[in-house]
Every structure is written in C-alpha cells, then in structure tokens.
Amino acid sequence: MLLHRLSPLAALALLGCASGPTTLPPAPAWAFASATPSAGNELRMHAQDKYIQVSLDGNNIYGASFSLSHSGIYIRGTGSGGSPIDVKLQTDHATGIVRSQPLTVDLSPETGGVTRVTGLFAGSTSDFRISPALFQGKLGSCSYEYTWTGMRYEGKVSCSGGVQDGSLELPVAMAAWTNLEVATVLAIVLGT
User: Fold this and answer.
1) Predicted confidence (pLDDT) per residue in 74-89, tens digit
2) Element (DSSP H or E) covering residue 180
3) What is the number of other CB atoms lying within 10 angstroms of the CB of residue 37?
4) How many helices (H) and strands (E) does the chain have?
5) N or C: which end of the chain has fewer CB within 10 A?
6) Which long-range contacts (CB under 8 A, 24 or more apart) does 126-131 make?
7) Angstrom distance (rounded) from CA 121 to CA 140
C-alpha cells in the first residue's frame, strides 16, 4: 500500500480529498408546499423561453423587477418600472394594488392537503392548486401542470402560446411564512 510511504501530513491530505460530496439537509416538513434545499434563498421558475428569479433576504424580496418587503400583514415595495406594490394580508385573503392593477388572493383548503388559490392577478382571473405534491392551474397569463419530483416541481407550462417543459423551485425560507404570504408572493412574482 502506498500510504505507508507517504508522510503523515500527505496521507491526511489524501484522506481529506476522499470524502464524498456534501449533502444538503432535507427540506423541512411543510404542509402547504414543498421546498427545494438546493435553491438556497432563491425562488425560481424556469421554462424554455421564460426565467424568473427572486431572492429572499430576511423580510426582503428582490429581483430584476421587484424590490419588496413582507410581514405577516403586508407585502409592499415596487415592481417593474418602479410601479407600486401594496398588498394587505388578512388570514386567508389578500387585497391590494400591484403595478397599478387590483390584486386579490383567496385560499381555501381542499382534500388531500391541497390548497386552492383564487383571485385577480394583474387584471387576470387566476385559479391554481398547490400542495407538497403539485402546483397546477392558471396563474396570471400562464397555466402550470407541475408535480413534485423530490427536488423541485416539474412538468408543463404554457404562457400565451405553446406548451413547454418547466420547473418551479421554492426556497426553504418560505416554509416559515404564512400560507397566504407564499401564495401572494407567487401571485405577484409569477402572475403579474
């Protein structure tokens, strides 16, 4: 064996390199949705011709078109072009203005741990379902048919045209938010 010919320091260095890849801790148990640990602090939606990413930093949400802050009772800030976003959250109902358009979000539980989210997002009626196993329905101008793969939501998405493969990743940090905060941020970021 070659190790007996190496200095102790060199042998330690080789053994240190032999360790396997670092594994991420599992996502927390979350009854509303599923989180992607590898997403870090990023909410990401990807389709062949569309990519949306926002970052979470404490109570702040920011991205190319957004600079928001949130608490259990509001989501406020600016959207594209500096347009105001001001949404009030109340238990299972949110109302406000996003990009000079009315926004409403309503949550209602369904069987099997699914939550139905309905409302008016950027002037468009929306109706989608979310659970740890699925993300499906119409959100703004897009329709989603995603299922949880153990890593992310994946499936088909159609945004004003043909059907494409797509994915959605929710950061672990969102598991600590209220269900209404998560649904409303999804409505603002993906639906407006």
Assistant:
1) 999 998 889 999 999 9
2) helix 179-191
3) 15
4) 2, 14
5) N
6) 126/187, 126/191, 130/32, 130/33, 130/183, 130/186, 131/32, 131/33
7) 6
Query: Which residues is 136 bridged to in the sheet?
Result: 129, 145
Angle ∠(94,97,98) on CA atoms, nearest 5: 105
55 bridge partner residues = 42, 62
One-letter identity of residue 31: A
The single residue listed with the structure tokens 């989180």 is: 35
Tell me the two tokens of residue 172: 């672990």
Residues 6+ apart with CB under 8 A from 138: 125, 126, 127, 128, 144
51 token code pair: 């990519």
Query: Which of the residue ranges 5-9, 35-39, 87-91, 168-172 would you say has the lowest mean pLDDT?
Result: 5-9
Tokens of 85: 């976003």
Q: Which amino acid is at 126?
A: S
